[in-house]
Structure of BadM/Rrf2 family transcriptional regulator:
Amino acid sequence: MYLTQSTDLALRVLMLLGARNQRRSAADLAERLRVAPQHMAKIVQRLRGHGLVRTTRGRGGGVVLGDGVLERSVGEIVRALEGPGEAVDCERPPCPLRDGCRLRGALRTAQEAFLASLDQVRLHELVTGPPEPVLLSLALPSPAASPPPEGP
């Protein structure tokens, strides 16, 4: 199954937020994940709409994980972000094979198996263990935000 770029980035945002479970600005997330700030704002808005993050405006505001999100399955999160769509659209344009085709059913079965395998993985499993050092390094304050080291 193919995940949209938006879903891929949304999962990365959740992982980054989960690494330290602390507030981040959308601009900081955009910088760390190397995407345009406007694109990140749309991703954060989608995540907020699904209750996966909470946002606060203004000074001291930012983005944090929603309650219990680390315990949710990746399959559940992907279903929320991708919606109920099927792998193929046999209606537009109308496929002449649709009345006798078995491809749609086979692809639906494969899609369900893909999501079922993601149901076995909780978000917290993606942010602990071996990936943790990389995520934590991304979750540290920006080098520009920290004071320069003092000289000898």
